[in-house]
Amino acid sequence: MQDQPPAPRVSTLEDVALVAGVSRASVSRVVNGKPGVAEHIVDAVNAAIARTGYVPNRAARALVTRRSGTVLVVVSGTDTSRSGPWGPGEVLADPFFGRLAGGLMSSLAPRDVHPVLMLAVTDDDHARVVSYVREGSADGVLLVSAQAGDPLPQLLTDAALPVVLFSRPDHPLALSYVDVNNRAGGAMAARRLVERGCRSVGIITGPLDIPGAEDRLVGFREAMADHGVAFVPTAAGTFSVESGSAAMGELLDQGVDGVFASNDNMAVGAILAAQDRGLTVPDDVAVVGFDDSTSALMCRPALTTVRQPIETMAAEMAGLLLERLEDPDMRPRAAIFDPTLVERGSA
Amino acid sequence: MQDQPPAPRVSTLEDVALVAGVSRASVSRVVNGKPGVAEHIVDAVNAAIARTGYVPNRAARALVTRRSGTVLVVVSGTDTSRSGPWGPGEVLADPFFGRLAGGLMSSLAPRDVHPVLMLAVTDDDHARVVSYVREGSADGVLLVSAQAGDPLPQLLTDAALPVVLFSRPDHPLALSYVDVNNRAGGAMAARRLVERGCRSVGIITGPLDIPGAEDRLVGFREAMADHGVAFVPTAAGTFSVESGSAAMGELLDQGVDGVFASNDNMAVGAILAAQDRGLTVPDDVAVVGFDDSTSALMCRPALTTVRQPIETMAAEMAGLLLERLEDPDMRPRAAIFDPTLVERGSA
DNA sequence: GTCGACCCAGAGAGCGCTCTCTGGCTGCCG
DNA sequence: CGGCAGCCAGAGAGCGCTCTCTGGGTCGAC
User: What 3-state DSSP class applies to B289?
Assistant: First the structure.
C-alpha cells in the first residue's frame, strides 16, 4: 500500500526560524514589526518568509493576545414571523443596510478587522451573540437594532462587552452610539414642503416606539408649528413599502397635498399609492423621504429626501468600537450627524 | 496605591474541572458531547459549567482542531472606481445580494458556522482572501463574483482551498458551484412576451462576458427562433438601473413592444424609461425582468419576472462547502436550479 | 584596564484546548 | 480463583504563537 503523501503542512514560525537561522522570537518580532531588531536579521527573516510562504496562524495569535481581530455586526429585531416572500434576507436586502455595511467594511478593512454577520431575533440568538464575544470569537459588537425594546443593548452592557449602536437606544444606557439628528431632519422636510407651497401636509411615521421615528415626527411637527400649522395629519407605517402605500391612502383621504414619509421605502410606497389614484407627484401631492437609500432613484419622480450620511456614520461606529477596544476605560460617547436635503423631483 | 481588582478572567476548562472534581479531559468530553462518559460525571460537569459560566475559547479550540468554524463570504469584482454616490456599499445594497446573504445565513447559523464578509476588488484584496483562509481564519470561501475574468476562483483552486461559487465560472475549473438554468429562464421570458401578443420583442442583456448574462440571451434567442422570430433587437446593459433605462431608449427607438431585461434592476430602469416617454406598461410595451428581487415590487406596474430561487441556491452553496469541508476528497459538483415565472403587472 | 549600562537575540513558559495513551477498575470466562 | 478483555477517567503532550526574562556582547566612563 502506498503511503499518503506527506501532509502539506503549512509552515510555522518555527520553520521560518530554522530557515533564517534565527530564533522563533526574532521571527515573531519581525512579523509584528517590533522595533529593535538588527537589519541583517530582518532581511534574513523576510527572505525566509518569502521562501517558505509563511502565513501566521490567527488562532494561535488570538489565543495569546486575546484579540480575535474580528467584530460582530448584529442586525437585531427582525421579526421573521412577518417576513415577506424574501425571507430573513429582507433586512439585508434593505438598501439602507447595504449602505451601512459598505461603510463599515471600508473603515474596518484597512485596520485588518473583519466583520462577521449575525441576525438576532430570538432569545437564543441574543444569547448566541453574547457567547460569541465571550468565547473570544469577536472583540466587540456593532449593533443595528430595527426594533423597539430590543434586549440586546442591555444584555451586552451588562456583560461589560464592547458595543456601539446605530441610533440612540430607547432607554439610557452606558454605551456609545451614532445617530443622525432626526429632529433636524424632520424639520428640513417640513420646511421643504412649506416652501413648495403645500397647504395641507401630513406625515407618515415609522413605528413610534423607535426613538428615531418619534424624533422625526417631533421635529416635523415643531417646524410646522413654527410655520403656524398646529395640526398635522398623521398615519403610521412600519418602514416598509406597502405600509407606506397604505398610510398614504389614509392621508390622501384627508386631502393632503404634501407628505413627509419617515423613510424612503415608505416614500416610494406613498408615491405609488398616489399614482394609483391618478395623482401626479409632485404637482398634486409632493413627497419627501428620509435616508437617501438606493430606492430613492428607483421611482419616478426620483425622491427628494433627507439624506443620512450613513457611510460616515458607519465609519464613526467602527471608529468608536476600535477606540474602545484600545482603551477599555473609554467613556461612552454619542456621535450625532447632520442630515442634508437632497432635492430631486418628488417635492 | 490600591490594587487593581483581580482581572475578571473568564473561566477555563481547568476551572470547570476543578469545580467538578474531574479532569480537564472529562470536561472536554462532556462539552463536546463525546460518548462514553459516566452519567454522574456528566452531571457534575454540567453543574460546574453552570456555576462557573464557562464558555469554551474558540481560538484555543481552533488551534488544535484546525477548524475555525467560520467561512468567508466574498463579493468579488466590484469596480469601486465606478461606484456611484452610495460608495462600495452599492453591491451590498443590491436586493439580489440581500436575498443571497439571507439564504446563506439561515443555512449556516443552525450549523454554528459564521460568515465573515469581504469585498474583493484589487489584487491586494484577492491576496487577502487567500491569506485569510491560509492563516486558518476561515475554513473555506463562498464566492459571488460579479465580474468577468475574476482571478479569484483560479487563485483559490490553485491554492487547493475549499470554495463554492455562485454561478458558473467563466472558464472550466475544478470547483463546485450553484447556478440557475439561465437559458431556460431566458426562454420563459420569451414565451411570456410572445404569448402576450408582442410583435416585436427586444432584449436588454447584461455584460456578455458574464456566462449567466450570455446564457439568458441565448435561451431567449433560441426560444424566439422557435416561435419563428429570427432577429431580436439587442441592447447591452450593466445590470444597473440606469443602464436599463439607457438600453430601453435604444430598443424603444427600434419600435419594440416587448422587452426582456436580464435582471430586475434593468427592468425597473426600462419601465421608468418607457414611462418617461409617455408609454404605458404593459399596454404599449411589456417588460419581463429576471431575479425577482425586492425591487420587483418597488415599481408600477409590479414586475413580471423570472424568479431565481436564490435562498435555496444559497443554502445549497453553504451545503456544498460544508460537505467539502467534511470530505476533502469530495468531487466538485454543480447544482443547477430551475427558474419560475412570477406573473405580475408588467407583462 | 575595569566596571557598569545598555542593547538585542534566544530560551522557555504558557495561552486554553483536544486527543492519544496509559492505567486502574470491573466483570466474565475458564 | 486467576487472568484477560473491556471500559472509562486522568495524565500529558502539543497545536502556533507572544512575551518576559535571561545572558552575552559592546561601548563608554571612570
Answer: strand
Q: Which of A286, A244, A238, A246 has the alpha carbon at shortest distance from A268?
A: A244
What's the predicted TM-score (pTM) here? 0.91
pLDDT tens per residue, range A69-91: 999 999 987 554 444 445 555 67
Helices vs strands, H then E, count in chain A: 13, 12
Identify the CATH class of B13-56. Answer: mainly alpha
Q: Which three cell numbers stand for residue A282?
A: 409632485
The reply to whether the CB atom of residue A288 sits less than 7 A from any atom in nucleic acid chain C is no
Which CATH code fits A182-307? 3.40.50.2300
CA dist A89 and A237 (Å) reads 21
pLDDT tens for residues A119-174?
A: 998 899 999 999 999 999 999 999 998 778 899 999 999 999 999 999 999 889 99
DSSP state of A255: T
Which residue has cell 449575525?
A118
For residue A29, which nucleotide's C1' is closest to its Cα?
D18
**Fold match, B13-56 / B70-180+311-337:** no
Asked if strand C contacts A25 at the CB level, meaning under 7 A, the answer is yes
Q: Locate cell 412649506: which residue?
A: A194
| CATH of A70-180+311-337 among 3.30.40.10, 3.40.190.10, 3.40.50.2300, 3.30.470.10 | 3.40.50.2300
Q: What is the per-residue burial (b if ≥16 Cβ within 10 Å, else e) of B88-118? A: bbbbbbbbbbbbbbbbbbbbbbeeebbbbbb
Within 10 A of B160 (CB to CB), how many other CB atoms are there? Answer: 10
User: With contacts defined as CB-CB under 8 Å, which chain A residues touch B90?
Assistant: 98, 102, 294
Separation of alpha carbons B63 and A58, rounded Å: 9
What are the residues facing A204 on neighbouring strands?
A: A235, A261
Residues 6+ positions from A294 with CB-CB distance below 8 Å = A95, A98, A99, B86, B90, B93
Which nucleotides of chain C are near protein (any atom < 7 Å from a CB)?
A: 7-20
Please give the DSSP secondary-structure letter assigned to residue A289. Answer: E
H-helix segments, A285-343: 310-326
Distance CA A170, CA A58 (A): 37
Domain ranges in chain B?
A: 13-56, 70-180+311-337, 182-307
Residue contact B134–A62, C-beta within 8 A: no
